[in-house]
Structure formats: C-alpha cells, structure tokens
Description:
heterodimer, A: 115 residues, alpha+beta, 3-stranded antiparallel β-sheet, 7 strands, 32% helix, 27% strand, B: 321 residues, alpha/beta, Dimethylsulfoxide Reductase, domain 2, Rossmann fold, 2 domains, 5-stranded parallel β-sheet, 3-stranded parallel β-sheet, globular
Amino acid sequence: MTLQVIDNATCTFCGCVCDDIQLHHDETRIHQAKRACVLGTAWFLNHTAERKYPDALIDGREAPLDEAIELAATLLHEADMPLIYGMSNTTCEAQKECAALADQLGALLDSHTSL
Amino acid sequence: MGGKVTCTLGEVKQRADFIIYWGGNPAECHPRHFTKYTIMQKSKFLPRGRKDRTMVLVDIRETKSVKAADIFLQVKPGKDFELITILRALVKDQAVSDEQIAETGLTREVLDDLVQRMKAAKFGCLFFGMGLSMTRGKHMNSAALLTLAAEMNAFTKFVAMPMRGHGNVTGADVIMRWQTGYPFGISFNRGYPRYNPGEFSTVDVLVRGDCDAAFIIGADPGATMPQPAINHLKRIPTIVLDPHVTHTSRLARVHITTAAQGIGAGGTAYRMDEIPMPLKPALKSPYPTDEYVVRRLNEAVAAKPFWLPEGKVPPMLTAQV
Ligand code: SF4
C-alpha cells in the first residue's frame, strides 16, 4: 500500500514546535515521521486514528458524547467554585474556549505554568 | 512573562554567538533545540556555525547536554538565585566576597571568565529551564535571570528565554494574557479576572480543597500532582478531556475522548518564543476536537441561568470585611 505524505507538519511534543516534519501515513496510523527527534517520532507514531477508547465515560461506564457534555455542564454550573486547569496539550482555539468557559462560570482558570 | 527581554528563535539562530542554558537539559528534553535553533546552525552572521558560537551550561548535575557545552558550571543545588545575584554584581564590578562565591560551589576565576565572555559576546542568549524555575526560589529565580539579561544590555545585546516544556503551554500563557490580562492563576469569582498565584494556582487550590468541581483539559494531574491534590480531585466531580483515558480520567466522574492536537485535530500552537504555528493534522480522528467539545460545553452552560442573578453582586464581595 502506498503511504500518503504530508510535508512540513508540526510537532507539538515539546516547546521547539518543529514545523518541518514529513509524515508518512495510511489514514489510521503514521508510519514514519522524518526529521522528527526520538521524542517527536514516539509522539507521532503512538497516536492513531483507531477507536481505542469509548467516546465518553461517566463514572467509569461508557456513555454517549451528548450525555457526557450535558452532565459536565450541569456539574460545572452547580459548583460554587469550579476549577479549569491544564490546557497544555491542546490548541489555542480550545484554550480560548476554556477562557470563555471560566468567565461564564465565575471559575478559577490556571495552566501548567503555575506548578 | 510579559515585559521580558527576549527575542525569537530565528534571531538566536541567525545571531546568537553566546548561548547559556541554565537548569535545563535540552539534549534530552528539547532534542532539536541545538540543531534547529541554536549552536549547530550556520548563518549569515555566524558562517562557521558551531565554531562561531560558545555554549555554557549551568546545572546542578552532569546531564547529557554537558557533551555539547564548551563550558559547564556545576552549581550547588538550590544556589541558583545566589549565583545569578553574584553574576549581576560582578557584571557591574561590585565587590563579592570569596565566601559568597564558595557557597555556590564555583570559583572566582570561573565566574570572572564567564562575565568577561558575556560582555565580549555580540549577542547573548540565556535559556532557562525547569531546573531553575521549579526549584528553590521558583519565579524569583526566573525574575533574577531576566534582570541579569536586561542589565547585560548596558554592555551588549543580551536576551533571555524560558525553555517551555510539553505541548502548547506557551499558547496557554498567551491566550490567557490576551483574554484576561494575566498568564495563569486567575479567578473569575468576582465576575472579573483577578490574578494571584499561590491563592488561585491549581496545586494550592486542590491541596487546600478550595474548589468544588474541576475541569481538566490536556493535562494529567492525577499522574503528576502531590497526593493531597489528587485526593481532592477524587472527592469532587472532575471532568477530563483527553485523547487517552488517563490517570485523572480514572478518578473522574466524566471523561470525554478528544482528538490529539496536531495529529487528529488542527489549530494553532505556540512555540517557546511565542511564535504561533499552524498545525497540520495527518489523520482523521474518530473523536471530536477539544475546541468542539468545550464550545458545546459553553453553549450548554449558557442555556442555564447565569450564576450571578441580575442585579446581585458576587457573595464573596459582600462577605469581605
Ligand atoms: S521533533 Fe522533537 S524537538 Fe521538535 S518539537 Fe517534536 S519533540 Fe520537540
């Protein structure tokens, strides 16, 4: 099978954010990450497009996405002082939504930087 | 980190002839930093590449990065702040006693040589890592180092840059600064953003048990935080968004699987020098992106009554004496 090639892909594993990676993939798995370092190669090769996990879990049981979102919104809305934390392994677009969520909830907003 | 004396990695690559890594191990944590941005690159101003550049490594122990360094300074653990302060004094020809220097585990000759080299450089760059900013002194260490870089500009061009670690932490700083005015440790509980690390930073909040719900995205505190913090996450309803079922997911009430950034999800990520990079996802993930899920959450919360009823002030404002 021939692999598809993506040039100048971006690796987000470390702060270097190398944007010159050549990825060879077959749509479910990346087989080769050229120019990436050992860490970057591991990062690209370990993530697949397979359905490894359930869409969502509620109390450890599998649940549909919509139900999980609804429950999450209720839990956060009911709380007096919710905390929104993390945002390292995610895109800026999602981070912006998190800031909006914290604003809406009157929540605490914090990232990995404060550790 | 607003207001720091810094530059982009492009400038470092083109011009920096004197590079100091402080409290970091780029050879193992940022493997392509040397080759892509700093010491190995040839440029118009430094045509001989590695030969035109000097690299100094300051750390408490020998790491794999030592091999790449021209000069290695082994500082005593917890004495970074003292060493930076001594350097700041030496740079300005102020008196420093031998005992003070001995305390850092280094000698006067070594430090005099370093200061002389720093002043002789055309373009110096200080990269500092977690070994500096996460040990005794914490942000005071970073602040001292940034001041040293600023003060060096009386003699030559000098900049400082944090070696940011995992993923898009730089982006989180930048986005929070843009949206709220502060980089982290923010509270909206008065209806407007306030900044107070130590009070609003996550570890402290969790260890004290201040929050009564937690939304964790793109992080795994269940694997990295101190046990009392994890115990509190177990007690309260925790919601996790992650491409994997993580340690935190196992103690959470709700886990939602999302696409991994840069692999199944597109968007933007910031490099450590605060340059935004577009992502090129290679795979089509069966899971939604973080952005989509948080936006849906926002919509779901917006459909509920606002936490602060119309015309009321936040209770904690009136509760204050
Ligand atoms: S390829 Fe290596 S150095 Fe570059 S961003 Fe990825 S992990 Fe970092």
